[in-house]
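Hey, quick one: can you model this chain's 3D structure?
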Amino acid sequence: MLPKAILPATSSEGGNIPPVDRAYTALLMTVRSLIQALTDWCEKKVDEDYVLEIMDTIEGEYKATKEALDVYEIDMSEFDSIPTSLRNVVEKCVYETQAPGTLEIYLPNVQVLVQQLMIGLMDRQVVYKGILIEAPELAWAAGTKVQTNS
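Sure thing. Here's the predicted structure for all 150 residues.
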């Protein structure tokens, strides 16, 4: 079971948070927890299943973020390969010997992929915030396409 901090917000927990902001926050928190989980894994505090559950959550949160941004016609497709690439690196790591040396081998690749994803999210968030400056009522436009002037 994943810690509550990295589980997606339900409508009762995140009811006052616009869908894009909720999706962003959930993805960022989950990605952040991956680094900690890998550290815990190499210290034998958690097993590979725990780390892979976090990867499952990252993939789901990425999809939710992409769908939330799609409502505003903000394209995330150039980053679609990152969750899969991240999973590949994480799986290679956790199927190796559980030791700090293993993490030292794989962590740089994990960090590069996470950084690429975070830069992409920040860039898209700027576009999203720009849309909201022009039309703040669109923050709650979940589930329907929004006509933008871009």
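One thing worth noting: Confidence is low (pLDDT under 50) at residues 1-14.
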